[in-house]
Recover the amino acids of this structure.
């Protein structure tokens, strides 16, 4: 142990947390709840200015639904410190010495470096947005939206952009949410989508509904678009985005292409990574083969309970659960994170989009044969004011009838219905069992057969063959 | 077989359905889907004017949210007849001869009676509203709201009532929904409630929230009120409702005290009835001990999957499921209705109310020890516009941690969250398992921990004891 880390007080252990967002600070907070400072010292390193912020909320801040940046901060650095967590902001961990049980951290502003030893370590280094190596990608006016600093930079650009033309690259969750944000700011929005339909987390037949709805909102959706470069004016500002086929004038460009696990530190230290580049953990969120190191949040891979395979899913709700599990275990309790079923919900203006479980291509990839059905229903009893149409797609395994996945596109009341399928997937229910589910019914909330049950009935009929 | 029934054609069976609403006509329709008229003759008797109507929609028609009575009719008599169902309206079945496999029906208008033989019989005789034997209960202006005729009669009274004072007797689902309807019609509404808090389907601590919200809507809620008589003017119209303690002036009175299975016919025929007066069936919805008789809808008792006991629950969504199961079995297929978990949702203006599973007193009655928790959360991320408060109560069994029940009171987005608990109850999940559920998260739809998960975490902590 070097002098620079101060050394842990005798009789107490030191927990070091790398990354001060959802997973890291949830872990720190939960560990603190279970162990007081005399028993556990907690040091948390965060390279940015903020802790515990809602990255998922950035599109709504940019779009103006959320007025102030600070509303997105669940817990400030001061609040963490008051709870006895030694939080070091603007401090990046640059090296992990597994054998020596220590990390090297660098003060981002001064450049000063020092080693800190740990008894237990939590890696919560998050994810990095994909930023393609394209000519012009670093032009002024081209923005990612991963951090609060990114959001502020984008808002600054919007406040001084010379025109009202926005190009969003990517048509996944971030892309469609940013399209909404920019529409709300009065921009003409073009979305450049590499795939055949937006929302590739849905099957194309459901993505097509999103496409149509986005066009209906005045968003120009360009599918099968391969971006080749960003065109820049003499002033260094973006002026257009070029694809293989065309040029799209742009006063501002938002990149929403997805994220990758940020595991450079772990990789250099020789920790086990999966096929998606994320850290591999056991059920207790302990890094495989390393009893003293836990990992959670956007930097890990998780078990998909439906396919049985590892996936990488960057989502705040998982990160919080991971942190809770890690903090419980580090604090001397016991908790596990069993895995995910792949639930995600989103919206573009009043269009709601939801999915859980496997798409058709996921099922094929893991060798599952399935029946797929699509039904139309409504959010409330058809006669009740505000009843809006909803399309539900459901996949069930052939022969067994086991539910494999659900996708929903609709208006108000559509998205959160996917939760019923998420629980049914977790429980391993068949679609036949689902037809009997005792879901809440009253005319303002549902038709007498809830849309999810209508889909289950159709899927069960198809599985049975009569 | 008497001459009057015409006799079934050789080689085809006759199905007789008693009761032309949700369960009966669902059964008839599904049987018809599976067997064509050459194989199965279907005769359905309905004593009223209508078929397949939404009784649950009546409060919204009375309140003006639904403009026309006919919007509440899912399928008209003509539509049923076009599908090859011999539907006889205004025809009441007055006797069931089980040994002779025939029913006696009376034309309500002419009084003419005749016997009709059956090969298979479906009893879907529904429920009757409780109408206490009180002096004055038959006064003009005192209304039930069970049938479309009831609804029309109430609307007629509203259109000519001399004043704007309404008294609703009963504070369950029908009572609170009728209170909303009458508020919407501009009435001063007083609700007389026998219990200590409204919505006795909730625990009193949750009912208290409904009480407060209803008072906030300008509804006068009188708890612990025992109605003793209805006071009538010289013109035969209601003028007040008296309780043991006070008199409440009324220009119109709505009775919403609950319903009982309408099983007089079955009782006279010696069919098996349960403790709640409902018909007892097996899982296929066949009346116990009677291979050729099925029963479903509001006239049967159902198995409560959480308590393991029989219950009577009058709800259109169950009736439709029963009908579907019966029709499948009668049509030569195979289906079962496993039971209910007791889910119900309702609203009073913008207040949403939901429950599933056991209340504290239900758990005690069946000898289950439990932990109960109550949490406050919001419908969306706290920073997202429209986030509204929500209270969730959760019961879990001691030691096992098995979920026993959930109650929710809140605003927009509160009620249907109970579906997650309904599926978890059906699957026999523990609250610890629930803490890991992969529910849909995005700021417009949920806090990063969904309110149901917040409750599950607190319940799991209490069960574990740390």
């Amino acid at each position: 142990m070097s002098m620079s880390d101060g050394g842990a007080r005798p009789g107490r252990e030191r927990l070091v947390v790398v990354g001060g967002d959802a997973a890291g600070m949830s872990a720190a907070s939960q560990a603190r709840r279970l162990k007081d400072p005399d028993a556990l010292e907690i040091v948390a390193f965060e390279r940015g200015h903020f802790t515990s912020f809602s990255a998922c909320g950035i599109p709504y801040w940019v779009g103006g639904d959320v007025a102030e940046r600070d509303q997105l901060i669940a817990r400030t650095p001061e609040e963490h410190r008051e709870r006895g967590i030694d939080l070091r902001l603007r401090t990046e961990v640059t090296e992990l010495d597994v054998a020596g049980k220590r990390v090297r951290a660098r003060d981002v502003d001064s450049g000063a470096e020092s080693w800190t030893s740990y008894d237990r370590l939590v890696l919560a280094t998050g994810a990095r947005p994909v930023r393609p190596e394209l000519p012009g990608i670093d032009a002024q006016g081209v923005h990612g939206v991963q951090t609060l600093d990114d959001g502020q930079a984008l808002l600054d650009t919007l406040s001084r952009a010379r025109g009202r033309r926005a190009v969003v690259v990517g048509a996944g969750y971030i892309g469609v949410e940013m399209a909404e944000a920019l529409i709300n700011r009065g921009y003409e929005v073009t979305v450049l989508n590499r795939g055949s339909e937006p929302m590739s987390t849905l099957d194309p037949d459901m993505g097509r509904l999103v496409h149509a709805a986005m066009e209906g909102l005045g968003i120009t959706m360009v599918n099968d678009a391969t971006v080749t470069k960003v065109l820049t004016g003499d002033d260094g500002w973006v002026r257009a985005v070029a694809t293989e086929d065309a040029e799209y004038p742009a006063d501002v460009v938002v990149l929403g292409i997805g994220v990758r696990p940020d595991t450079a530190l772990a990789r250099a230290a020789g920790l086990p990574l999966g096929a998606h580049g994320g850290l591999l953990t056991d059920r207790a969120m302990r890094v495989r083969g390393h009893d003293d190191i836990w990992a959670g949040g956007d930097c890990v891979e998780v078990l998909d309970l439906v396919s049985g395979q590892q996936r990488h899913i960057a989502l705040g709700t998982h990160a919080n659960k991971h942190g809770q599990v890690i903090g419980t275990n580090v604090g001397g309790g016991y908790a596990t994170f069993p895995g995910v079923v792949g639930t995600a919900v989103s919206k573009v203006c009043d269009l709601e989009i939801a999915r859980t479980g496997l798409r058709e291509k996921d099922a094929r990839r893991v060798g599952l044969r399935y029946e797929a059905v699509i039904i139309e229903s409504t959010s409330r009893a058809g006669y009740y004011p505000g009843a809006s149409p909803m399309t539900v797609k459901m996949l069930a395994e052939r022969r067994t009838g086991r539910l494999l996945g659900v996708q929903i596109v609709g208006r108000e009341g559509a998205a959160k219905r996917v939760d019923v399928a998420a629980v049914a997937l977790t429980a391993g229910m068949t679609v036949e069992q689902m037809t009997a589910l005792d879901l809440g019914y009253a005319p303002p909330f549902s038709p007498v057969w809830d849309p999810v049950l209508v889909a289950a009935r159709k899927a069960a009929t198809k599985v049975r063959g009569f």
About this structure: Chain A has a mean pLDDT of 95. The two ends of chain A are 71 Å apart (CA to CA). Residues 316-330 of chain A form the longest helix (15 residues).
